[in-house]
Amino acid sequence: MRKLRARVCAAAVMVAVVAVPLAGRADPSTELPHVSASAWLPSIGTGTLVRTNATRGEPDAELKLPADALVVQGAGHVVLFDRAAGTATPVDTALLRYGAAVPFGEPLGEAVVDGRGTIWFAVLGRGAVVPMRAGVAGPAVTVTRGGDTLPLVVVAGRAMAVDATTQSLVGLDGAAAAPLPAELAGRPFHAGGSTDQRVAAFVTGSRLVVSWLDTRTTEVVDLPARRPGRPVVAGHRVIVPDGGRLLVHDLDTGATEAVTVADRPATLDVFAQDGLVWANAPDGPEAMVWVDDAWRRIRKYGTRSASTKAPRPRPTPSTTVRPEPSPSERETPGPSVGGPQAGPSPGGGGPRPSPAAGGLRCGGVLTADGALDRDLRCSGTAGITIAADGVTLDLRGHTLSFAGPPPAGAEPIGVAARAVRDVQIRNGVVTGFLRQVELRDSRDVTLTDVRLKGNRGLRAVAVSGLRLSGVSIGPEGRNSHALTVTESTVDVQESSIVGDNSGCFLSTCRFVGGNLSVDLFEATGPLTMRGTTVWCKVCHVHDGGTAVIRDGEIRRLNMPGGLPRIVGNRITGPLRLGLNPDSPYPNGGPAVERNDIVGSALVVDAQSAGRMRGMRIVGNTVSGAPGQNFYSSGEGIRIDVPEGSDILVAGNTVRNSRGYGISAPQGVLDGGGNTSDTGCVGVRCG
Length: 686
Description:
Blueprint: E1 13-15, E2 38-43, E3 48-53, E4 58-64, E5 69-74, E6 77-82, E7 87-92, E8 97-98, E9 102-103, E10 108-113, E11 119-123, E12 128-133, E13 136-137, E14 141-142, E15 152-155, E16 158-163, E17 168-171, E18 178-179, E19 190-193, E20 199-204, E21 207-212, E22 217-222, E23 232-234, E24 237-242, E25 245-250, E26 256-260, E27 269-273, E28 276-280, E29 287-291, E30 294-297, E31 331-333, E32 364-366, E33 370-371, E34 376-378, E35 382-386, E36 392-394, E37 399-402, E38 413-418, E39 421-431, E40 435-453, E41 456-469, E42 472-473, E43 481-486, E44 489-493, E45 496-505, E46 508-512, E47 515-523, E48 527-530, E49 533-541, E50 546-550, E51 553-560, E52 563-567, E53 570-571, E54 575-579, E55 591-593, E56 596-598, E57 602-606, E58 615-618, E59 621-623, E60 637-640, E61 647-650, E62 653-655, E63 662-663, E64 669-672, E65 675-676, E66 680-681
Parallel strand pairs: 32-35, 33-36, 34-37, 35-38, 36-39, 37-39, 38-40, 39-40, 40-41, 40-42, 41-43, 41-44, 42-45, 43-45, 44-46, 45-47, 46-48, 47-49, 48-50, 49-51, 50-52, 51-53, 51-54, 52-55, 53-56, 54-57, 55-58, 56-59, 57-60, 58-61, 59-62, 60-63, 61-64, 62-65, 63-66
Antiparallel strand pairs: 1-5, 2-3, 3-4, 5-6, 6-7, 7-8, 7-9, 10-11, 11-12, 12-13, 12-14, 15-16, 16-17, 17-18, 19-20, 20-21, 21-22, 23-24, 24-25, 25-26, 27-28, 28-29, 29-30, 31-34
């Protein structure tokens, strides 16, 4: 699993108040900087609130707090509040002291911190919510009549309140209101949100209800819950505390896993902050954090021994560039972008190197940050090699290119990195090499605002935490391998991948936004696309692999094999899913749900003999299906699988198709609610 992406969700937890430093760690007169990889975790038994570092897994500062206080934290703020007294006290976590109490005059309910650092408090008697900024209370926002509860959530960074009388989420700072899911009517529930998307989650009984506010669609999941609490949405996962464990539901794959925090019936406080998710048992020593793609246990008590030294900062070396001793390799100056030009070489004619671009030369080995100050054109076998941790290569808008042709048997690489971590490549163009960028055996490598042009764009082998943001990979033509990822994890955000072939082999690949346009894409591991524009002549997901495409645009998709989940997309081109009947299909099986299919059709068929099991085709809208679409003869939805297959068909609407609205074999599960103006076969249509 990849790192969970979320910033702020409120945590209100019973804690203790007297600001003192943890022995041997902080002097009250010494400022402690805000640490983004840390959180303040309360412990009722010791009457303390400790700042715990996620990377080291141990505390580094401490506050003493009264037992009747609660704490809310997020966006760099920590605030104590006393519900009964109706007061809130900001904490100066740098100086380890607290400020003046802010009175609200009435008992308080829940509290949350929004994406801008404003703390919102529910004032129950008035049915209102009051903001606090910089230690000062602002004007109240009336939500409903007074009552015992007034749930608060943060959605897309905006604070919202639950108005039970109107069954709606009310924006507190001008955010658009949204109706509550119908599944919550008349039922008690816990509510949570997400700061990076317009999604809210609710737990009622043992059911998880996820609501996408913009599309007003919901997903209902039955959880194996015993004592569920307030959910937290982090990226594509929803975390629900349940006694001493967490139930982690993956919205993309439909899988739910249990993670044990305490081997006892503890009450867990769960919150997301600065990209991490924390789970704490206030009444005991147990705590965990999701960091570096895994749940890690956290120590809340005790001090370091005197023999334990603080981590030493790594010195920043001077830029070192070591040209490879290749007599055949020369630099040819590209277009001049500032700086002097080289003068005549000694001795008159013959090839000569150009001045280095920002100290960088072709064949150079980079062991500290480096940047181009002009275009750099290479021949021979190598462009630039990154050979140290923590290095940033900034192209500064320039082009690193290959003159060619390469020497016999050589495979010139534009930018190469091996066995490094925390590396960044950004802001420019790499083109003309046999492979533009190649990464191996590395961790936490980020490409930002880079364009890779040529026959082969990016190859990553055994790279954990590869991130692409604003990257364009694609040749002038289409005869290329744009993106090849093997035994790696990659997040592709708002990027463009264009070419003949691409693939994710034994890897976890996630796309957010951007576009993928390829003739052939192969995947042998989890593949996720959210908000992505997809044109894929053949997307082959091999057996056992999952493929989730949701909330984007599909212009063409032919997907044989795997476990597809196609949810909430606008589909404007052919869509065909070829399924394997004998696949086990865990977590509810394949699904095609809540899609808007315009001028096209959905075709589901079997790759081999055998009955299909556990598929859902639910809530889709199809209009204007043409006469020929893959294996369709004009049906809006064509299901061509053996009779008696376990496929649920429900709530689909088909209009203006050339053939039947829905064509299905006998024995599929007719869930009702299907409609068509041209009739249906295999299911009833209104």
